[in-house]
Amino acid sequence: MKKSRGIIVLILAALITAGMVFTAAVGIGDSESGAIKHIKLGLDLAGGVSITYESVEENPTAEQMSDTIYKLQKRVETYSTEAQVYQEGDRRINIEIPGVSDANAILEELGKPGSLLFQTQDGEVILDGSHVTSAKAGNTTDKLTGNNNYVVQLTFDEEGKEKFAEATQANIGNRIAIVYDGNTVSAPTVKSAITNGECVIENMESYEAAESLASTIRIGSLQLELKEIRSNVVGAQLGEEAISTSLKAGAIGIALVVIFMVIFYLIPGLAAGLALVIYTLLVLLTLNAFEITLTLPGIAGIILSIGMAVDANVIIFARIREEIAAGRNVKSAMKEGFRKAMSAIVDGNITTLIAAAVLYLFGSGSVRGFAQTLALGIVLSMFTALVITRLILNAFYAVGLKDKKFFGQQKERKAINFIGKRNLFFAISIALILIGFVFMGVHSAKGTTFNYSLDFMGGTSTNVTFNEDMSIQEVDANVKPVVQEITKDANIQTQKVAGTNQVIIKTRELNLSEREALNNALKENFGVDESLITAESISSTVSKEMRWDAFKSVLIATLCMLIYIWIRFNDLRFGASAVIALIHDVLVVIGCYAVVRIPVGGTFIACMLTIVGYSINATIVIFDRIRENLKLMKNKESLHDVVNKSVTQTLSRSINTTVTTFITIAVLFILGVSSIREFAFPLMVGIICGGYTSVCITGALWYVMKTKLVKKEK
């Protein structure tokens, strides 16, 4: 790159960065498109709509309620992956959808849950809505006229597929009516037998009509008929302080990471710092573009991804220093450094991207939301590391920063005998995991294995109408201590109902005497009219089905990662070692939850998924270097020497990536609100554990599998 081109690249980088800063801060045009303030926020940050339904059937079974809640969860995910559906009392279901403020519009779009039947012209019921697995609006184009044909596409389960095939076979030329709450909403004519479990209702008058019918069919597939009891617009569970402190923590974390990179890597570190700022802005703009709902754990996840985004740069710069130490000039070292770092970066990120795709496809609720932000972070971090950092670094070189002293050099270190100490490392790991299991057993004997939060255990929801309108900060400062005195538990959630003096207080399950004590305390301290206090038992917001979806997703993702590593490294033992290391990190963090009694809530799933992504990425870098050194293995070198050499060569990368990622989360832990600290602390444990595992465990595991568990090759 010539000097003039280098100057142009740096000027363009500055202008583009300034443009993105302006867009994120102010927005473009009258609609202020792209501004941070338009990012969709979750219930905890911005509030939303709360709708309560009640079963028309007076004594629904637990199975019917559970099935209805799960299906409703799937419906409302079209509005937001962070929407929550949970049981209230014996026959009520509460839906909370973040980022919206028009309850009537949601009710109209969601539809009135009721009975759905498919009937012949003679009134014979073929099947009911419970056999419908999906209903989607769409359109096709007539090849002759070019006109749009708006349609509704239906898919049935196996039982519904068989029943519908029999009915359509017997009713060709006749109509099959779709009857909702006693009213016929559509009566298409059967043109031919439909045996594949999928049918299309054609010639809808508009896309809106098709979407309305699809919505009616979706909501009618519930096991229970529901009626609306109430709908409210609720305020944020956390105040503006939570957002401001998290953003402040993010800014400080980025600044500290940039300073660290500049001090440690000099000019390349400065290039990485600029690329990191661009990466952060790209994440914010992309969140807006794809309308991804952002919650408080989501903010923590993005800040974590900022730390992880540095990893690719660290790998590249370590390679450049090695090439300079080997005698290459700076230009040649940069080219070779990027080339040699490519495989580790691509393999590590693709492995994590596979996990994100599986989590999105098979997960539900917050798991899908996490998968979206994870995939977004991976793609953008690869782009900034391999494209932006490279352009800026070449531009610095072109404008005259060519001296080796600006880049540093990494001399060959004497290999540390990690393999020789493997038994010690294995013993430490086993001890850490056993400590966790011991504490789980002790706590289980006393009552509960973990300190489950309301998200997992459910509790009591108390609706209180105060005499004055208090902000959420005032509620937390004045009301929470009174509630905590009664419940003897810090696990309390509060929400305001917009436009009223009502506050919803969610606590652990309260018995009758505790409810009376709480009512008296509210009356004495705030002069509340006791007749304006209502309480209901509520189920967990993370249902059993959602937990199973999360567990199933992680299992499938782990299997897919194992297969990918096996194929890429041409050795199943690499994949097996990576999976064992991943399980090790997860068990240690779960043990941390048991020992420290951190509340296990909705953020628990996000935390575990973050550890999975971080752990596998760190492991791939070590394996990539082992694979490379095996090809260059000298006659006098043993496998023992190769593994030690590989781990030592990547040691600075492992330490620096752990430090930069830890910095961002540590700042969040220090400055964040209590719920963020509950998320940040186990993440810090996981980051340290991931760094330890990648250096001390993964290479040793592969070595043991290679030498001890198979016959030695001649």
Protein architecture, described:
This protein is α+β, with helices and mostly antiparallel strands and 714 residues long. It is 60% helix and 13% strand. The protein contains 21 helices and 15 strands. It has helices at 3-25, 43-46, 62-76, 103-110, 158-170, 207-219, 240-265, 267-289, 296-325, 330-362, 366-398, 422-446, 454-457, 472-487, 512-526, 544-569, 572-596, 602-631, 639-649, 651-671, 674-707; strands at 48-55, 84-88, 92-98, 116-119, 125-128, 132-141, 148-156, 177-180, 183-186, 198-204, 226-234, 459-465, 493-496, 502-507, 533-538. A four-stranded antiparallel beta sheet has the order 2-3-1-11. Strands 5-4-8-9 form a four-stranded antiparallel beta sheet. A four-stranded antiparallel beta sheet has the order 13-14-12-15, with helices on one face. It is globular and about 85 Å long. Belongs to the SecD/SecF family. SecD subfamily. Residues 67-122 form the Protein translocase subunit SecDF P1 domain. InterPro entries: SecD, SecD/SecF_arch_bac, SecD/SecF_bac, SecD/SecF_CS, SecD_1st, SecD_SecF_C, SecD_SecF_C_bact, SecDF_P1_head. It is a multi-pass membrane protein.
Beta-strand content estimate: 5-15%
**Segments where pLDDT lies below 50 for 5+ residues?**
none
What is the β-strand count? 15
Q: What is the overall number of helices?
A: 21
- Note the overall shape: globular
Q: Into which percent range does the helicity of residues fall?
A: 55-70%
Query: Biggest β-sheet: count, sense, barrel?
Result: 4 strands, antiparallel
Mean pLDDT: 83
Main sheet: which strands, in order across? 2-3-1-11
Measured distance between first and last alpha carbons: 51 Å
Radius of gyration: 29 Å
Strand pairing plus helix content: what structural class?
alpha+beta
